[in-house]
Write a structure and sequence with these properties.
Radius of gyration: 24 Å
Number of strands: 31
Number of helices: 9
Number of domains: 2
CATH architecture of the largest domain: Alpha-Beta Barrel
Helix content: 10-25%
Shape: globular
Length: 580
């Protein structure tokens, strides 16, 4: 098994194309990192097909023809399969030193179910705060800027063109063939703003039929122009490194109670105990955590409680409190999350039935008056951003992270670290000075808010929204967790949960040493945190961590290698840098 990735399956092959000062990477039929003179203009252009669970269907490329020189040309024929249905797509890429165009035509042989089919265009997160002109189908143009704070909904709608200024270039993107809109994809962890076809307000999934052929195009052009720099994000100067927690389920609690030495390899400060009332009466789940607390009394216990509020809010919370008292389980904190909020509510969708959050947390403050109380989401930041918790009765707010929501290749996973400062900065504007907790934050996804299931990964491949990712247990996973700690360090997070105790997101492989080393830094001052040119550098108290987040050697570190060094001199605090 490959020590770097935990799998022998290769990542998607890439190729760098150069046409004059224009460069981009080809990955299958997708274009990435489209740059001119070293300035990244567009993060990506891809023709994508999503299934009913928002999983990305992998195309089979059946024909390739190309031409290079002063003008680059590539033609691909691709097949996408959904059940018994097949979609045939002809993709053409043409580029020279003055512009780039990607066009696609396609048809299906029978009814083809999809949540989205067509082009997506990604603008890099670095355009945050940059001016942009948005062209609409009626011929009007709106002057705006790319949001700095993460927009919970769609910042721009009805798009036929986008023209932005950054780093000495004015970049224009023209779109045709459907109605396009933009979502602030940073909230899922992607380091980009995504422009996509077919408005989310329309029903999905929907059917493509043989009578509805596809024809779409994206054209990018650019001109030199004077541009003003954008102010960096401002984080507090004096923060400390968070305490480390590990996730544990009731079944895993019973296992850990029998072998408490399993915690010694990491020595976390806390355990995050998952209690799900949707599975039935929580008595047995709570009893399992009581056994664990008796076996491992020196760790702090936090209860993450999923509630149905049946028959009422108070009745269920009283039941939980009484079950904890009867079992002898004494958590330091209780986070209450409605079960329905585990699923995302996209734009245009109807909000599910749920008691008002203000009522939920007001009653929780009465029932758990002597316990630290939390709210937020057990899923991810988009759900928190769209359904913001009332803060009156909350001591802390929490949400999780997952880097494989939209893409799962190695480069994309590491690039999500660019979005973390925007997520934490935006979260701080929501929660103010409340304690801020992150987790679970693992490569693999424990529960899918955007579909009916996480995606199986029996072949140990790189799969979006998979419940098991082999890189978690490999050198890649250790480098990622150092990078994640670096990206989070300046946000003043008080607790982070980078792994579970057991299972596919549990302790195993090189990530154990990385998490153990970081856990020892709890409470130490963060003096420096920077991700630049593929290298993460984190200085916490007298300890310096460095991690190579790339497949190439960077300085003295090999691919996805990390190091820990004890510093002897005093280092002054430095601001976080969000560039990578």
């Amino acid at each position: 098994m490959n020590a770097l990735f935990g799998t022998d399956l290769p990542d998607v092959a890439t190729e760098t194309v150069r046409v004059g000062k224009l460069t981009f990477t080809l990955q299958g039929g997708a274009l990435r990192h489209i740059c001119y003179g070293g300035v990244e203009m567009i993060r990506g252009i891809a023709f994508l097909v999503r299934d009913r669970d928002w999983g990305t269907l992998a195309p089979r490329i059946t024909e390739v023809s190309r031409q290079s020189g002063d003008r680059f040309s590539l033609h691909l024929r691709m097949q996408f399969h959904s059940g018994d249905a097949t979609m045939e797509v002809s993709l053409h890429i043409a580029a020279d030193d003055r512009g780039l165009e990607v066009s696609a035509t396609g048809a299906v042989d029978q009814r083809f179910e999809t949540n989205r089919t067509g082009f997506t265009v990604l603008h890099p997160a670095a355009v945050a705060g940059c001016p942009v002109s948005v062209g609409h189908a009626d011929g009007t143009t709106r002057a705006a800027q790319f949001p700095v704070l993460i927009d919970p909904w769609q910042p721009f709608m009805d798009i036929v063109s986008l023209e932005h200024d950054r780093a000495g270039l004015r970049v224009r993107c023209d779109l045709a063939g459907d109605t396009f809109e933009m979502e602030d994809q940073r909230q899922w962890g992607d380091a980009s703003y995504k422009t996509y076809n077919r408005p989310l307000a329309l029903p999905w999934p929907y059917d493509l039929t043989p009578s509805d052929p596809l024809a779409q195009s994206v054209r990018v052009t650019w001109t030199p122009v004077a541009t003003a720099p954008v102010a960096p994000l401002a984080f507090p100067a004096d923060v400390t490194f968070p305490q480390t927690a590990l996730l544990v389920t009731p079944a895993e609690a019973l296992q850990l109670a029998q072998t408490p030495q399993d915690l010694e390899q990491v020595a976390p400060q806390r355990l995050l105990c998952h209690i799900d009332c949707a599975l039935g009466a929580p008595r047995d789940q709570i009893a399992a955590f009581a056994r664990l607390q008796a076996a491992c009394p020196d760790v702090i216990y936090d209860a993450e409680v999923i509630c149905t509020f049946a028959p009422t809010i108070r009745a269920e919370l009283d039941l939980l409190r009484d079950a904890m008292a009867a079992a002898g389980f004494s958590p330091d904190s209780v986070l209450i999350c409605p079960s329905v909020d585990r699923q995302s509510t996209p734009p245009g969708s109807q909000w599910p039935d749920c008691p008002p959050l203000a009522d939920i947390h007001a009653i929780a403050a009465e029932v758990f008056s002597s316990v630290t109380r939390g709210g937020g989401m057990v899923s991810f930041f988009p759900e928190l951003n769209r359904k913001r918790p009332p803060l009156d009765h909350l001591d802390f707010v929490s949400h999780g992270l997952c880097p494989i929501v939209h893409a799962a290749d190695d480069v994309s996973v590491m690039e999500t670290l660019e979005a973390i400062p925007y997520i934490t900065y935006s979260a701080r504007q929501i929660i103010g000075d409340r304690d801020y907790r992150i987790g679970p934050a693992t490569i693999a996804m424990r529960q899918n808010p955007y579909g009916t299931r996480t995606i199986p990964n029996p072949d140990a491949d790189r799969v979006c929204m998979a419940d098991d990712d082999p890189r978690h247990r490999a050198q890649f996973g250790a480098a990622y967790v150092i990078g994640l700690a670096t990206a989070l360090a300046k946000a003043g997070v008080t607790v982070w949960t980078p792994a579970a105790v057991y299972g596919p997101r549990g302790l195993g492989g090189p990530i154990v040493q990385a998490i153990a080393a970081l856990a020892r830094c709890a409470g130490a001052p963060v003096l420096h945190a920077e991700i630049r040119d593929g290298l993460a550098t984190l200085v916490v108290g007298p300890t310096r961590f460095r991690a190579n987040l790339t497949a190439q050697r960077v300085d003295d570190l090999g691919p996805y290698e990390w190091s820990q060094t004890a510093l002897t001199g005093r280092m002054e605090a430095a601001p976080v840098n969000t560039a990578q």
